[in-house]
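README: folding subset

This subset contains proteins for which both the sequence and a predicted structure token string are available. Records are stored as plain text. Below is the entry for Tyrosine-type recombinase/integrase (506 residues), shown exactly as it appears on disk.
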Amino acid sequence: MSKPLHHLIRKVIHPTVPGLLLPELILFNRRGEGTTYEPLVDFTVSRSAMSITSHLKPVRVMGFLWDALVENQGKPGRDARKIGRRRFLENFVTNLARGTIVWNDGELRDDTGLYWRPPSPDVLNGFACGFDAFVNYMSDPEDRPESDPFTEMCDGLFDLKILMSSSGRPVKGLGLLAHLKKNERTPTQPGLLDNVVEKSGRRSYLEAPTKEFSRVLLPTFLTEDFRTYSGRGIDASGRCFARLLCLGVRSSEALLMWEDDIKIRNGKVEVFLRHPGKFRDRSRGNRTREEVLLEDYDMLPRTKMADKCKVGWKDPALKVSLSNRLSWLDGTEEGAFLVIADYILNVRNPIMQARRAKGLRDHPYLLVTTRSGKDFMAGDPWTDAASISSFKRAVKRMAKRLPDEGIEYGKYHGTTRHAFRHSYGQDAEESGLDDKSIMRKMNHKSIFSSRVYRNKSEEDVHRQFEEANARRRSTTEPQIRSTIPSAPMSESLDDFYRTIMGARWR
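--- output ---
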């Protein structure tokens, strides 16, 4: 997409819900006067258990909708007041999906003034779902204010939806089919996106939950598959990164770790998750990390960078000190000590010493690039793209090493970086921890967030069902013994029908 024209999105702490970070949409008119859009704030609070990424989807799409309303105001054929809500929303969805910049007469033009680029299918689907969820919320008269800036510019805008339910009828009776009665003969109606996005570009729904990384394959994956194909070299940063994922952290949280976050003592390694900008370090004059980066290294936190070094931050639940001590996935701590200690002493330190000797900028981030290239230098902070490529190569090596396992790289194959976090959640549940303990262990703010990581795979559900049946068959206790009669099946069925049918049985 493009930069906002007439809106601003900022992240704020909710005044009455301590610790709740939410996105706030500020709408500007053509005179530059801005006001916070309160209904969207209330909607976000009502879904506070969701992640900040989920909160941003409806906020972003409503911001772009406001840009379209303001920019097209007064333009013939585009003003929502004149062309009607349905046509305006159809135009909005088309521009959102395909972009507004076109090639005409040998030059790029944009008659709308919006300058939107087409987003990916997943982002577009997220926008549509976010808009429809907000429309559902606004369908309650108590939640809809008497005066709304959107409906003032396009009356009845919140009576329409972008997506449709699987049956073709709008959820809660709203949307583009509100005038149709529920009738089995009513043909399935497409949503607005169906006219814009080809079937091949739509996101398919997968019933199976995201799989965990196989804990059977994990030990050899960590020790064997970060070696190069020749067997002579080691992907040192990739191997250390994979070990950090055994702490149950997100990939971005591992990339944001400083060398100071690692404490090696008495043959053990302690790792801390700390806020990338606000954590105060007593050993550095009680300055925040952002202050340390600006004053000592002349750089911004990676969360605020705009280049390839940028890394996201999902705002996990941290203590008041903004520092949490992390726990290892069962059975991985001993190997992690050897790998991380070797990485710091024999990989990172020599690279950074050589870097400083050349007069290049120093930095405190743990994971570094181990070689120089066309547009990067050895010692640069390891990027998110590099971590993905490293992990994919390791999975390919594992697939080559174990050809009979049918291993593929993918989210629903349980072989991505995030699959480690699902393994961590499964292990925490199997260890007998309660919901709140698992929530804290995974640095979540809600127990509902943690439950997503504990969904059983189809294979696990089948195995547990078979084990339960085996226990039931082997038990000798009368209260749970099978109640199926020992008489022949035909006689049992006859007796059953006589019982329920009485005199009508023939």
